[in-house]
Design brief:
Its cofactor is heme. The protein is α/β, with parallel strands linked by helices and 698 residues long. It folds into four domains: 371 residues, Catalase core domain (Catalase HpII,  Chain A, domain 1, Beta Barrel), CATH 2.40.180; 32 residues, no CATH class; 85 residues, Hemocyanin, N-terminal domain, CATH 1.20.1370.20; 140 residues, Rossmann fold (3-Layer(aba) Sandwich), CATH 3.40.50.880. The chain has 21 helices and 18 strands. Bound molecules: CIS-heme D hydroxychlorin gamma-spirolactone 17R, 18S (HDE). The site of CIS-heme D hydroxychlorin gamma-spirolactone 17R, 18S has 25 residues, from strand 2, strand 3, strand 4 and helix 11.
Length: 698
């Protein structure tokens, strides 16, 4: 029963007057059944609107333990955000193995086909703070916690298969350089500034990663459409302790798709939470995102024959060298009940691996094995963060660790040490079941702060990446470099960076030089190992990898009073049949009265629902409304940006004045609204051929 409001002093003549603004009455009218509100000590609360005062207009009393508890808790509601990957969205789901790796590993999660292992997966941007936008140009984190029967396995990867640096020693420098500049505290969530490019231009090992970072990979359309990569080589160990190297890859079932840069920038204004909302809505609608888990397996001997060192995290293993094998499927089917509880408090750590998986000597991985546990100690406030439900293993776990901040476990008994003899049932290590490490021979070369000579080639794979892209992707990459370096105020940094690019490809360097308006190609620095030509690696492209359906995509239909009901119905039906969500946009959120007299409510008001939110748009208007909207800037932008972002546009005759006002041209992607089939076919892809007509690319 809802608590009844009890005024502090019901007899006071001012009391009833001072109760105005008390939400209790309104809440009671709102109805529903609700449990008793209590303090954290379980004391029932009588009034959650007014603090305890000495008289209706008097000072607040220190005695008000209810107010103090509420405010104190609120004051402590924020925990330190992650120093990197602060902005993220996560979901629960499961992983199901479809092909056993028995013979390579003893890890049951990779050998027991059909077993559903629960997972929690968190996607993130890297540079921005927790409150920053979802769509900056940035790498996306792709971290999966598998709650296996043999302990937690955290595969903490990114949506790009390589990294900026080769040694953990450089990570704080990289992150300091990309984050907001320390004196001015901007720019937020952006690499387009001096300190980042200063560092990068002096760090040639970052060149391959820079190719990926400046490509459309860092502008994902949806978190459901990104690939994931474990990046480092790991080892699989069989029962006898034999080792096979492995690289892990996630492949999205919806295909890989990105936005274009101008669209990504406008998305930052249209919806700060574009990716989070997309993931939330898809899961709520039962459209569960899914990925295939694939592996590349190779032996030590094979690794020795590669023309690069697989322990160097700036290198991919091209798929023509080691093909991908699909072994399982991850489905995300449950949004957390509470964002903070799971997504904020989840603590990933690459050192969490079950018996049968082991680390390689990749020096970046080796540093990560230390960093993640260390960061949780400050972020989550102590050594017991593994007891938070999202972090706790789902298999039994026991040891002699005790006490510490926020200890929640209640281990009984006298014995919290080993060896011991006083008590039965205390945990003991086991050679047979316990975690084995690969008995690798330690390098006998002696200690030293060294980089192996095999890590010295920084350009071959950067060139291979650039040359493997389709022409529009190459132009986007070159234009991204021009955009970013144009934001760099220090000329010497711009020039140094372009000098570096000459080692990737002269053509790329020339295009960036032109785009920046530099008088001449800057000189290339001396390098230890110049780029070699390699066969193209088609797997790095995005174009052509969109799925040939509208599954996972969203179509916006702009309507107004008098819009043709049959056309709207036909477009909606065809789009939904192809798997798309359909959203109605109208000048008023209440909707519009259609040609047949029916009323169609809108999902979004035009001013707040621009076309950047959709993969393709249909504009269905009565001629009078078409004329009127041609004078409405939000409507003009709706059509103009759909055109500029290479999207399919279906329009009827009434929409013609609007299309004209928006300078929408003619091409295969602009179709009659009645030609529903053509519209669906055009909506399945982007109109790449349109781009040179409307934008100067580098
Ligand atoms: Fe991380 N990284 N990282 N990282 N990383 C963190 O751990 C670090 C690296 C990645 O959704 C931090 O819990 C070092 C590569 C993801 O919660 C921190 C180095 C890759 C996430 C940390 C790297 C990643 C993190 C910050 C170089 C791809 C987000 C908060 C040696 C393979 C996980 C935290 C989540 C988070 C350290 C490099 C992926 C500080 C020292 C390479 C997806 O511990």
């Amino acid at each position: 029963m809802a608590p009844k409001h009890v005024p502090t002093n019901p007899k006071s003549p001012q009391a009833s007057e001072d109760l105005r603004g008390n939400g209790d009455e309104l809440q009671q009218q709102a109805g529903g059944s609700h449990p008793q509100l209590t303090t954290n000590q379980g004391i029932p609360v009588a009034d959650n609107q007014n603090s305890l005062k000495a008289g209706p207009r008097g000072p607040t009393l220190l005695e008000d333990f209810i107010l103090r508890e509420k405010i104190t808790h609120f004051d402590h509601e924020r925990i330190p955000e992650r120093i990197v990957h602060a902005r993220g969205s996560g979901a629960h789901g499961y992983f199901e193995l479809t092909h056993s790796l028995a013979g390579y590993t003893r890890a049951r999660v990779l050998t027991e086909v059909g077993v559903k292992t629960p997972v929690f997966t968190r996607f993130s941007t890297v540079a921005g703070g927790a409150g920053s936008v979802d769509t900056p140009r940035d790498v996306r984190g792709f971290a999966v916690k598998f709650y296996t029967e043999e302990g937690n396995w955290d595969l903490v990867g990114n949506n790009i298969p390589v990294f900026f640096i080769q040694d953990a020693m450089k990570f704080p420098d990289l992150v300091h350089a990309v984050k907001m500049e320390p004196d001015r505290a901007f720019p937020q969530a952006a690499s387009a500034h001096d300190t980042f490019w200063d560092f990068i231009s002096l760090t040639p090992e970052s060149t391959h990663m820079i190719m990926w970072a400046m490509s459309d990979r860092t502008l994902p359309r949806s978190l459901r459409m990104i690939e994931g990569f474990g990046v480092h080589s790991y080892r699989l160990l069989d029962e006898a302790g034999n080792s096979t190297f492995v690289k892990f890859h996630w492949r999205p079932e919806l295909g890989v798709q990105s936005t274009v840069w101008d669209e990504a920038m406008k998305l930052q204004a249209a919806d700060n939470d574009f990716h989070r909302r997309d993931l939330f809505e898809a899961i709520a609608a039962g459209d569960f995102p899914a990925w295939k888990l694939c592996v590349q397996l190779f032996t030590e001997e094979e690794a020795e024959s590669f023309p690069f060192d697989h322990l160097d995290p700036t290198k991919i293993i091209p798929e023509d060298l080691v093909p991908l094998q699909e072994i399982g499927r991850m489905v995300l089917d449950r949004w957390p009940d509470n964002f903070f509880q799971d997504t904020e408090q989840v603590a990933f750590c690459p050192a969490n691996i079950p018996p049968g998986i082991d680390f390689s000597n990749d020096p970046l991985l080796q540093g990560r094995l230390f960093s993640y546990l260390d960061t949780q100690l400050i972020r989550l406030g102590g050594p017991n963060f593994h007891q938070i439900p999202v972090n706790a293993p789902r298999c039994p776990f026991a040891n002699h660790q005790r006490d510490g901040y926020m200890q929640m476990a209640n281990p009984g008994g006298r014995v919290n040490y080993e060896p011991s003899s006083l008590q039965d049932g205390t945990p003991r290590a086991s050679q047979r079941a316990g975690f084995p490490s690969f008995a690798e021979r330690a390098d006998d070369a002696g200690k030293g702060r060294v980089r192996p000579a095999s890590f010295a080639d920084h350009y071959t794979q950067a060139r291979q990446f650039f040359l493997s892209l389709e022409a529009p992707e190459q132009a986007h990459l070159a234009s991204a470099l021009v955009f970013e370096l144009s934001k760099v105020e220090t000329l010497a940094v711009r020039e140094r960076m372009v000098g570096n690019l000459r080692h990737v490809h002269e053509e790329l360097a020339r295009r960036v030089t032109d785009g920046l308006g530099l008088p001449a190609l800057p000189p290339p620095p001396e390098v230890a190992v110049p780029a070699q030509d390699m066969p193209p690696a088609p797997e790095v492209r995005i174009i052509g990898r969109m799925k040939q359906t509208l599954q996972g995509r969203c179509i916006g239909i702009l309507i107004d009073d008098g819009s043709d009901a049959a056309t709207i119905k036909a477009v909606r039906k065809a789009a939904e049949k192809d798997g798309a969500q359909v959203r109605i946009v109208a000048p008023k959120v209440g909707g519009a009265t259609l040609s047949d007299g029916s009323h169609l409510p809108a999902d979004g008001q035009l001013a707040g629902t621009p076309s950047v939110l959709f993969d393709a748009v249909a504009i269905v208007l009565d001629p009078a409304a078409g004329k009127q909207l041609a004078k409405e800037s939000a409507a003009v932008d709706f059509a103009a940006f759909a055109w500029a972002h290479l999207k399919a546009i279906a329009a009827d005759a009434g929409a013609a004045p609007l299309l004209k006002a928006a300078n929408v041209g003619k091409d295969a992607g602009v179709v009659e609204a009645a030609a529903v089939k053509d519209f669906i076919a055009a909506a399945r892809t982007r109109q790449w051929a349109r781009e040179p007509k409307l934008r100067t690319l580098a």
